[in-house]
Amino acid sequence: MNLVRGVVTCDANSVSGTYINSLQEIAMSAVPVESTATFVKRPIASRDIFSKSDETPSMLTAQISNFKTYATKTEPKIEKVYYDTDMPSNDAMMDLYNNGVSISQISKVLSVGMIGRKSARKLVPTKWSISADWGSQNTLKELIN
What confidence tens digit (pLDDT) does each residue in 11-27 have? Predict the structure, then answer.
């Protein structure tokens, strides 16, 4: 269970900005990342923390006003596909998987719009990131088989 869930509203078509860049640093990290969050208001307890099965249970929720990550070591395999803005997402997924990156890590990278052609990158909720498009669904099947 998470102690506090921070909430930020973002445009799914915008994969840049201070908050998104911080999330991308976390997704690209080879080690756990230290971070701090400042909230608009004091986090409030959720009345029905287990009511929605598609959400991570959380005791406290609050809108984030500032989020900061601290220096981290990036995973070179992820960094390589992140900076290749001409590589299709299916190829990037296969490249990451074939180079030992876990499906969980690939899902995180997809959810913050880090792979694929530059013009096609989008933010996708983590739950749906691995199946964000039909091609990714087929690539996932290939990875699992």
Answer: 888 888 889 999 999 99
Parse the chain into domains and list their residue ranges: 2-69, 76-144
pTM exceeding 0.85:
no
Burial class (CB in 10 A: 0-12, 13-18, 19+), 86: exposed
Mapping DSSP onto H, E and C, the string for 33-78 reads: CCEEEEECCCCEECCCCCCCCCCCCEEEEEEEEEEEECCCCECHHH
CB atoms under 10 Å from CB of 88, counted, come to 15
